[in-house]
Amino acid sequence: MKTGWYKDAVFYQIYPRSFCDSNGDGIGDIRGIISKLDYLKELGVTAVWLSPVYKSPNDDNGYDISDYRDINPEFGTLDDWKEMIAGMHERGIKLVMDLVVNHTSDEHEWFKQSRSSKDNPYRDYYIWRKGKGKDGKRPPNNWTSRFTGSAWQYDETTGEWYLHLFSKKQPDLNWDNPKVRREVADICNYWFELGVDGFRCDVITYISKAEGLPDGKFNPVMCGDEHFVLGPHIHEYLNEIYEKAWSKYDTMIVGEAIGCKLTDAPMIIAEDRHELDSAITFELMDVDMKWSFFPVKFNLAKFKAVQSAWQALPKNCWNTLYYENHDQPRSITRYGNGRGYYRKELGKMLAVSYMMLRGTPYVYQGQEIGMTNIRLEEKEYVDIMATRVFSLIRKIFPPLMPVARWAMSKRARDHARTPMQWEDKTGAGFTTGKPWMKINPNLGEINVASDLKNPNSILNFYKKLIEFRKGNAVIRDGDYIEYFPKNKKVYCFERKLGSHRYIVFCNFAEKKVALNIDTIPNSRGAKLIMDNWATQEETLGDAILLKPYEAAIYEIDPSADNG
Ligand code: GLC
Ligand code: CA
């Protein structure tokens, strides 16, 4: 049933709240997405990952689901959704939905039942425990929520605690209960029947918790990981959903794999294991972000080492390639100078640096026009992660507030969630009303309309690159060879299938860099096929001089020479 279509796909991630608002209430919606389907087709992407549009009280913007089978009214109706998916399919675009099943909302019917009494049939859908201490008023263990504080919430009704690895409005499901696993398979099949082409499985590495829920090693921010990241039954459970749902249709299942190291990956993504098709992993993000939230200095050599190690995954494993999503800061600000110089060159260089790799690339909305982080006052942050960090630090150690503000100015998830900049006008062409979140004031310079008009825009460069990737066997299947791994300014690698080769140069520095390249075998005479500065020599010699943030792709294609 599965054809592996995703290996040829280029994904575009839509964060619906911030994409396009059709009715002026300030919130992006499904009819807004429908109005932009031609734009996506033009861009050339062949699949969409849509962040959650299900019913939700929005404690975590839709990642807290209260009904898996219906659409949140603020996004539209199931009929709107049907029109959207039909429109995508007509344009040759697949739809991958977000599947958030490590936890539900506390407003989900299952949880309402579960919390109502200890003998309710849904009690065991969640993870309930007695507290510690004589009066049971201390949490059952020391695990922390990824949004700060204890991962346990005391519930008056039954005098027990429930586990929530995210906010207290996101209680964790008990995957050890076979009924829960049956429900998950049924939800998948419900959407497959409606035409969905796959799922991006939210924090799927957290679903199996260690027997007895033991205390974790001390860690103030991420305590307990070793007891639930890729826990004891993860493979069994993924395999079960694969058998009951994912393998029944021509699907793509990509898992958000927090904590999954390179050495773990084959165990969940190797084709013959029948678990996930691919994983969104974090080792690259960790290069300049400690504990996934504290910014540390960027080091290109480390960054390249991570990319190269993942490129060397066994052939029966498939990579996910990304720099941005709704949880990460904007790559232009993150990997660039943050001052806006050479923004266009930088945006294009970054595109080349990951789109030429082996795996399925994801473009996050706005990345294709080079959107940047936003400057926010403390009170302007709206996302639960930043607001929780601020209130925790204020409570436990106020002198650290400047550090918290600095960290969030670089790291907060808000940066990725500012409304999409379609046009240079009030509301950015995103909304005619009051946007749910502040629009980045740089919309005059950075917007889709002006990028569409400018042949040298980041957007048009993405189009070219996506087109170039399509059906390109060298990029899809070719070997990967890295050159100059220790160089801290330039990322240089080759993709090679038989004697057909691409040699890629990406200058991550804001300075000119000269590189002696006589160590790249038989590269002399390679032909220039893409260059973000448009000033390189037509053919490659023994050395190359790269301008700030320059990216250049050279090709050696013996078949072209013969013919
Ligand atoms: C994932 C999502 C993130 C969400 C969390 C809890 O990491 O990408 O946005 O807050 O899971 O569902
Ligand atoms: Ca709306």
Automatic annotation (TrEMBL):
Keywords: Glycosidase, Hydrolase. SMART domains: Aamy (SM00642). GO terms for molecular function: alpha-amylase activity. One of its GO terms (biological process) is oligosaccharide catabolic process. It holds the Pfam family Alpha-amylase. Gene3D superfamilies: Glycosidases, Golgi alpha-mannosidase II, Oligo-1,6-glucosidase, Domain 2. Residues 13-417 form the Glycosyl hydrolase family 13 catalytic domain. CDD domains: AmyAc_SI_OligoGlu_DGase. Belongs to the glycosyl hydrolase 13 family. This is Alpha-glucosidase. It comes from Candidatus Stercoripulliclostridium pullicola. The lineage of its organism: Bacteria, Bacillati, Bacillota, Clostridia, Eubacteriales.
